[in-house]
């Protein structure tokens, strides 16, 4: 692996950093923007999930579009859209303006999540492809870490009571700071070459040879060139590919494997945890400030275990990491469900008197009344105070009323994050970048990315409703059972792809 290849992989996957940053930022933003715009569960879900909805469109078309005009050109447009989204989100004057600006960002990260691993796989050789493609996931989790750290910093400044930040502006600064990495991404993208495999597909053989020699050196470039040329000679059919071809017998198996992984990555709950991290930690009764702090700890755990995955993915292989991670995800989610199921909620008279800026007389009707689940407690508080007042003070009220083992919940969530970070997170994108022939790669990853993004949007949209109507325990139990089922599905169908060239994998997997 050359320094140049490593640098290019890191730059291209900065789109993943911005995706992670946007996802992490919104978990803190909604603690302020939600009450300010007095959003209900559906509106909260849409404000959070709307980028994933627009990402579905970008994922469906960006792969095919990049086959026509090139990976690099589309990624430059992606960086520009990120910058536009950050700027207009920060200046949003209404709920509608906020979600429209975020949908622009969704177009960007939908394309970035598809094209970055595709591009990186096409500049890599077999020995280092897993590590290099995993840089995409590393950048995503670094984005999460930077976002949670930024949220913690702005929340701390605002909570001090002696700063330029107000309740109306604190969340705007949280969103606006994303403009800085977006502009850096835009500038750096002009310094990366075009994909050598794409150049070969477009008949620009001399340019492709030159790029490969710059990336891998003269000797290694010869091997890559020979492999690509042999594949192109054998793949004489250059007719336009369609979605229907992905389900024909030759491609059906690997397409179904990709779909299974793409769906499981989302419906096991990762974006419910990331996008609503601050709200989830509030549910444990640790308070608003501690919830922001726990978000930083959560994102740091993600970074650590993603780096672990990068070291192991080309040694242990894709299959062992994925299967072991699925077991850990299932155990962690079921542990959270157990912890929330044993929680009780009771506002004692003495605690009500200590609550500031709340209607104590309205709360007095529920004094010393014990609730054995969070749904009934929340509904009681909303009926007493109104939804907007409750939303602004949820962390304070739950902290005063909750009796639960918060440490158990924290262990479960961090265990889930750790297991996801070395399995479904990076391994999915590595597998998708490896399993499909050059001719079909852009289209196949685009379709699977579309389904992946739809599952992500659905989870994000439904999760606030789940917490309000099913409760914390049942919500996490559902994720745990899905992970159990997912393990058995993957154990049955998942192939191993480590240490093989893209062309070698094509021979082994097509028609399986």
From TrEMBL:
Keyword match Cell membrane: no
Topology in the lipid bilayer: Multi-pass membrane protein
One of the Pfam families matching this protein, by short name: Sugar_tr
Cellular compartments per GO CC: membrane
Subcellular location: Membrane
Superkingdom classification of source: Bacteria
Domain Major facilitator superfamily (MFS) profile: 8-498
Residues spanning the membrane: 7-33, 45-62, 74-93, 99-120, 132-153, 173-192, 253-276, 296-313, 320-340, 408-431, 443-463, 475-494
Keywords carried by this UniProt record: Membrane, Transmembrane, Transmembrane helix, Transport
Keyword Flavoprotein: no
GO molecular function: transmembrane transporter activity
UniProt xrefs under NCBIfam families: SP
Family: Belongs to the major facilitator superfamily. Sugar transporter (TC 2.A.1.1) family.
This protein's name: Sugar porter family MFS transporter
Source lineage: Bacteria, Pseudomonadati, Bacteroidota, Flavobacteriia, Flavobacteriales
């Amino acid at each position: 692996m050359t320094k140049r290849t490593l640098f290019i992989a890191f730059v291209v996957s900065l789109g993943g950093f911005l995706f992670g940053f946007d996802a992490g930022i919104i978990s803190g933003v909604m603690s302020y923007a939600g009450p300010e715009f007095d959003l209900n569960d559906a509106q909260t879900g849409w404000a959070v999930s709307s980028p994933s909805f627009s990402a579905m469109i970008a994922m469906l078309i960006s792969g095919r579009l990049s086959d026509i005009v090139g990976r690099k050109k589309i990624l430059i447009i992606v960086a520009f859209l990120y910058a536009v989204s950050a700027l207009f989100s920060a200046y949003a004057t209404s709920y509608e303006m906020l979600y429209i600006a975020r949908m622009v960002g969704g177009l960007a990260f939908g394309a970035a999540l598809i094209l970055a691993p595709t591009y990186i796989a096409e500049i890599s050789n077999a020995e280092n492809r897993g590590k290099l493609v995993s840089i995409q996931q590393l950048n995503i989790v670094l984005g999460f870490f930077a976002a949670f750290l930024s949220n913690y910093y702005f929340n701390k400044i605002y909570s001090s009571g002696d700063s330029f930040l107000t309740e109306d502006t604190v969340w705007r600064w949280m969103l606006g700071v994303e403009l800085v990495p977006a502009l850096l991404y835009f500038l750096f993208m002009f310094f990366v070459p075009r994909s050598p495999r794409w150049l070969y597909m477009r008949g620009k053989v001399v340019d492709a040879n030159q790029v490969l020699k710059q990336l891998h050196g003269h000797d290694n470039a010869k091997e890559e060139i020979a492999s690509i040329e042999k594949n192109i000679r054998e793949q004489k059919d250059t007719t336009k590919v369609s979605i229907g071809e992905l389900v024909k017998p030759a491609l059906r198996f690997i397409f179904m494997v990709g779909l299974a992984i793409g769906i499981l990555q989302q419906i096991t709950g990762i974006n419910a945890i990331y996008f609503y991290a601050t709200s989830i930690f509030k549910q444990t009764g640790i308070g608003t400030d501690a919830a922001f702090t726990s978000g930083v700890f959560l994102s740091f755990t993600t970074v650590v275990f993603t780096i672990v995955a990068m070291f192991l993915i080309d040694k242990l292989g894709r299959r062992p990491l994925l299967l072991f991670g699925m077991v850990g995800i299932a155990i962690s989610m079921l542990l959270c469900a157990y912890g929330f199921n044993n929680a009780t909620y009771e506002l004692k008279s003495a605690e009500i008197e200590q609550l500031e800026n709340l209607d104590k007389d309205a709360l007095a009707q529920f004094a010393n009344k014990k609730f054995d689940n969070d749904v009934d407690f929340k509904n009681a508080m909303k009926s007493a105070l109104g939804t907007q007042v409750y939303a602004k003070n949820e962390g304070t009220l739950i902290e005063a009323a909750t009796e639960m083992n918060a440490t158990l919940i924290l262990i479960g969530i961090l265990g889930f994050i750790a297991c996801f970070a070395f399995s479904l997170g990076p391994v999915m994108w590595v597998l998708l970048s490896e399993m499909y022939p050059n001719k079909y790669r852009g289209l196949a990853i685009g379709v699977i990315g579309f389904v992946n993004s739809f599952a992500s949007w659905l989870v994000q949209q439904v999760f606030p409703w789940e917490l309000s109507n099913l409760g914390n325990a049942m919500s996490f139990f559902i994720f745990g059972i899905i992970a159990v089922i997912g393990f058995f599905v993957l154990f049955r169908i998942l192939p191993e792809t480590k240490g093989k060239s893209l062309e070698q994998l094509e021979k082994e997997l097509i028609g399986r």
